[in-house]
Amino acid sequence: MSTIISFNCCSSLTASKLINPRIPTKGSSFLSTHKSFSWWNRHFLPKCTSQKHVQCQLQNGQQKMRSFSLKECAISVALAAGLIIGMPSLDSSPMAYAANPSLPDLSVLISGPPIKDPGALLRYALPIDNKAIREVQKPLEDITESLKVAGVRGLDSVERNVKQASRSLKQGKSLIISGLAESKKDHGVELLDKLEIGMEELQQIVEGRNRDAVAPKQKELLKYVGDVEEDMVDSFPYEVPEEYRSMPLLKGRAAVDMKVKVKDNPNLEECVFHIVLDGYNAPVTAGNFLDLVQRHFYDGMEIQRADGFVVQTGDPEGPAEGFIDPSTEKTRTIPLEIMVDGEKAPVYGSTLEELGLYKAQTKLPFNAFGTMAMARDEFENNSASSQVFWLLKESELTPSNANILDGRYAVFGYVTENEDFLADLKVGDVIESIQVVSGLENLVNPSYKIAG
């Protein structure tokens, strides 16, 4: 179970403003020109690269910067153009969307307001099937949207949310308890008792019209809900494929704190980002990262890309673009690993597009500001090693629930605290340390313990 800890960033800012990549609006469709593809590669795709390659130089006849192929890029833009509601047209020409007229109908991908809160995404990503606890969770999550409504109407909506959650808890408590893992049942029941008391306290807050106290109490109650849901997971729910079974695997969840020293910024000197790694849905990817954290691989490493779209690091000094395992003297690579919503185990080695799963939803989507994923070579799905990136939302080209990164890159965690400050990082800022604060016991086959 993840441990919630407190920390803060040394900053006088209360919010960060993200500058989105510019969308080209002049000339013919940017699918048709090489120059426009260069813009796409520079500004949009998380590449497996470092600052030493930032000029996109061609060396030995090979393109060192990673990018989509022309086919993938065309399909990506068609997907984005067809799914983004209210986005300015990329081209007024009637041929603008004729690049791939045989694309399937993807309108089903947008099925309601997207979930953007990293905590909520992690709660919904737990491998449980208990309708009763989800019926308690949803109205509590919906309080976030209710609070966006100004004045009395917003509090009235919050009150309805609280009453619905309380009613669901009373009616479904026995079913929730029956879903708890036997070894965790006592702890789960204790949490449910605290949740009931907290619901009554939230009801009193709403009746007293204390709007400012609603969100902190909501966060507390959702923490109880998330912990109850984790108590429903008895053991790791599936077997990792045999070819990856001996690799470092995170069979559960872990949390790390990443402390970054910020240079030349009078408003931000240093910041600690709290990151939750989800091994339930990406055991190989999360296990590889946690193993590197324990090796102190990232300590002292600079931020190598910060362009308003992603923040990226993980390219070590020297010619290698990944982690060289001292026990083998070879680059350790991991497979592309994507969990599809509704499936019991991830798919490996292929993008969802390659599998023809155009309508599939990923269990860990690129919905949240600070979504954490692995960079990889464009032409090799199984080429990820140590380079990681954090997505900075909201980009017009990556709307939640309809972005063009899901199913192509392996998400394995979210920044859950101070994520907004990612937008303040720049190339050259230094990761002072990444430390595990919980869940290390869930790492199996840890290679960092092997001398070499």
UniProtKB/TrEMBL annotation:
Top-level taxonomy: Eukaryota, Viridiplantae, Streptophyta, Embryophyta, Tracheophyta
Looking up PANTHER family in the UniProt record yields:
PEPTIDYL-PROLYL CIS-TRANS ISOMERASE CYP38, CHLOROPLASTIC
Tell me which UniProt keywords the record has, alphabetically: Isomerase, Rotamase, Thylakoid
Name by which UniProt lists this protein: peptidylprolyl isomerase
E.C. code: 5.2.1.8
Top-level taxon: Eukaryota
Q: What class of enzyme is it?
A: isomerase
Q: Which GO terms describe its molecular function?
A: peptidyl-prolyl cis-trans isomerase activity
The cross-references to InterPro entries, in alphabetical order and at most eight, read: Cyclophilin-like_dom_sf (IPR029000), Cyclophilin-type_PPIase_dom (IPR002130), CYP38_PsbQ-like (IPR048563), E_coli_cyclophilin_A-like (IPR044665), PsbQ-like_dom_sf (IPR023222)
Show where the PPIase cyclophilin-type domain sits. 275-452
GO annotations under biological process? photosystem II stabilization
Look up the coiled coil feature and give its residue ranges: none
- Which Pfam family name is an example for this entry? CYP38_PsbQ-like
